[in-house]
Amino acid sequence: MSDQARWKATVYVGGLAPMVNAASLHAAFLPFGEIADVSLPKPEGPNSTELHRGFGYIEFEDPEDTKDAIDNMEGAELFGKVIKVSAAKPPKNVNEGLGSKTALWEQEGWLAENAVSEEDKMAADRAKTGADDAPYDPMQGLEGLDVAGPKPA
User: H-helix or E-strand containing 124?
Assistant: First the structure.
């Protein structure tokens, strides 16, 4: 199964109680379809006593099973805590987007999405100013504002 297909068959489960383990998570989601993998990311700190970071991922054999799992388990209670269940999102590439060590405009996808030709910029400017009229005068319409105070009646 490709990575893209695997993420479509995976659900995110958040708000997990500290005592939840892979076996209990597997048992809770087994009624919705065959489970290929259960993952509970470990805490990043070396001295942490936590078993997981409070969330996990469940990969089903069939992507259609994710819909049933989300519909039935979203907002359900597991070990005394209400859990959040949604479709999993693929991890971001560390070399793309904000937080990358590469400048945003040098990234492959950014330029393709945000590139605008000079011809398009000039056409947009002409449309804003009213086609090919005289250049915009920012002082136009301010003739009567040279006198301070209330307007005479």
Answer: helix 118-129
pLDDT tens digits, 100-119: 677 766 766 776 777 777 78
In this structure, what token pair is assigned to residue 105?
């405009």
Classified as helix, coil or strand, 130 is coil
How many CB atoms neighbour CB 107 within 10 A?
16
What's the rounded mean pLDDT across residues 69-96? Answer: 87
**Considering the entire predicted model, what is its pTM?**
0.59
Q: Report strand pairing: 84-87 vs 55-60.
A: unpaired
Helix, strand, or coil here: 56?
Answer: strand
SS3 content of the chain, % helix, strand, coil (to 5): 35, 15, 50
